[in-house]
What we know:
The complex is a heterotrimer. Chain A is an all-alpha fold.
Amino acid sequence: MNNNFRLQLALLAAPMAVALLTSDSFIHDSLTQVLMWGVLALAWNILGGYARQISVGHVAFFGIGAYTSTLLRIGFDVSPWLGMIAGGLLAALAGVLLGLVTFRLRGPFFTMATIAFAEVLRILAVNLRGLTKGSEGLTLDSTPNVAMFVFGSLRTYVFVAWAMMVGLFLLSWMLGRSKTGLRLLAFREDETAAQSLGINTYRLRLFAMGLSAFFTAVGGTFYAQFLLFIDPDSVFGVDISLQMALIAVVGGIGSAIGPIIGTYLVVPFGQVLRAELGAQLAGLHLVVYGLGLILVLWKMPDGVWPALERLIARLSRRNATTVPKPGTVA
Amino acid sequence: MGLSPAMADLLIASLLLGGLYVTVSIGLSLVFGVMRVMNFAHGEFVMLAMYAVYWVYEAVGIDPYVAGLVVVPAIFIICFTVLRPFVLWLVNSPPLVQVFATLGLSIALQNLALLLWAGNFRSIQTSYSNTLVDLATMRVPLTRLVAFTVAFLLVIGLHLFMKYSFFGKAVRATAQNRRTARLMGINVERIYILVFALGTSIAGLAGVLLMPIYSVHPGIGFQLALIAFVVVVLGGLGSLPGAVLGGLLIGFVEVCSGYFISPSMKQIVYFAVFIIVLVTRPAGLLGQRGAEEVGLK
Amino acid sequence: MSAFLSVENVTRRFGGLVALDQVSLNVEQGRIHGIIGPNGAGKTTLFNIIAGAFPPSEGRLTLGGDNINRLSPEQRCARGIARTFQVPRPFNGLTVLDNVAVGALGGSSNVAEARTRASATIDLLEMGEHTGNLASTLTIGLRKRLEVARALATRPRLLLLDEVMGGLHGDEVDRMIATIRRIAETGVTVVLIEHVMPAIMSLAEIVTVLDQGRVLATGPPEEITRNPAVIAAYLGDEVTA
């Protein structure tokens, strides 16, 4: 898989290269968003791709992360770097609790439960005004202070987001190659057979949920620090759950690089559409998203990355003597 | 009798709301029960029907219920023809594809509405919008009474159809075992299209009934879908009597919590009910035990 | 002569249906124990209970003296019980190697080690040439062998084989018989459900006959096949002699 390995490295390095080579703040802003969504899609992928438990309520964890770090910052002057960890842990706990509640649910039952869970949190965020200031939202101090996760230069945000994405990529990649990764593969292929071979599928599921929730919350904190304003609709909205999942599905779930390809394709596409069509045609880019998703699912149900791998395999077969073996982990 | 006026009012209000919820949800349960596909775009069809009725009224002044006589069959026909390949593809796809394809459709339709008609809330005012009818202890909006009556007739009609008509029996056979149904000569594909079209046009009917009562906006599909999820899970996915029971119960829960707790928190109450049901009896009140563990198999 | 696996008065009901009725049997360590009976006798239900798929309605199971009634399937696997499924359940998206490696994970510190151990098990079952193939591409005979390999990779003390001969042709049956004998020779206790009589006759040291959820007879194969009650139970049933 050497070809693909180099390709993956190139894909990972690309945003940094672009960031270092340009000074355009608009590009840096776009890059930051692309990378942040990469983090979110990778986080979602741990549960949705590796464990194949489809959640459309992941924004719940995003919001928990955003609100936790923000409230700690505003109320107790706690650095969002620490708040990020706290938010992650809180989200992981919420994820595990959700997993406990839904442990017998499969397929659409599970999905619906996640949607309901996220909605409950959104409604709570709106109504618990004493805690969250409701729909008014919370604003963060914008004075640059590295210790407080506020940077003067946009390029620094790109770097931080990039570091997060690469870090999570490496973690996903290692998870995929680990014993747990193989167990997850077995689990999603046939849960009963996996149990008969000694795999504690109950714990495995909770582990995937907790880990996935943790990193989604980390993304939430980053978002809060990037925009310096959060409110229930922006950090608990279902559209975020959908986009996270959509990106991973389009890019290719179940691999570490898939969500990254997904974000490279989906996010700039949306940004361009929105820019070109402006506010008059609000919603058009999402119509395209929706139809595009259906198209990808129809033509490349595994996602773009596996289709790309197949293309590369076909091209290299003309020159090479061995064919890459399928079915390996991550 | 022992019922206080307040209790009677609550009951009547519950029934009226419950009837609406049944209409919104029963199509979803039908589609899942037969095709094992959860249509995450179900709410959007309600929304589209509402907009259709709205625009017909605004443009030509035709009464919403009359317009409904055209809109509902139109939805049926569209599903039967235009969406046919989509539906057949969906039924034979893995769970992941089913979920995201219907979600994709939902996103597309919701934003199409946003694109075409903007995000503001729209409502219609007919000559009878404010008409109240005397019913036992309270005065009830005519529009809600009409909605309940239609819902009632729908449920009866659906029950009779499923139980006594040939198509109804074919549908039930297909729901139980698609391979055997095929061996018996049933055109399974046509049954699927029929069921999808039926389920979706019932959603359209719900939209027709809702428009005189509520306002429409692009996001209403999602909100209604959430209610539908709770109703069908409570009642038992795939069970039509379950959807009826679920709808009435949720109507009751919502009315009571709006009255006893607070209007803004009533959503939380039925989500709490949802979670409790999922924890204690995921198959629902009238559903098959263990169905939730099989999921999409 | 200690009973390694002890099934004591196990009853299992499904609603109004009594699938197993006061079934008792003892499997001695290191032996090959056969379970036969007409279709619907409850053989797979018994396996499911031993493997932990669901609990008995009444009765007790002990393994090596310990009560295992409350253990989950994965816990029983940790105690040394491994099983195959009557209809093979391979991990279709994984290669043969990875399928078996999943079984070997428990005793390995990493995936590479699991794969190495899996290789050895694959060789034991003479599936070496299929190592890199996806499980979905295998024929039924190979899938059955994969089931056995995967279960074996968990290093079980008790191996439950559910109709592993079903669907195999002459040659394959002989090879499977030889393989099972080799497995038993390593000290693994084997319990096998079979319809293929030559397999039972040549492998099983003790046979238990189930009929309609009850134990009809237990004893050496030659005795069992001459037992008139057993023959009567099979009348009208296909017995490949």
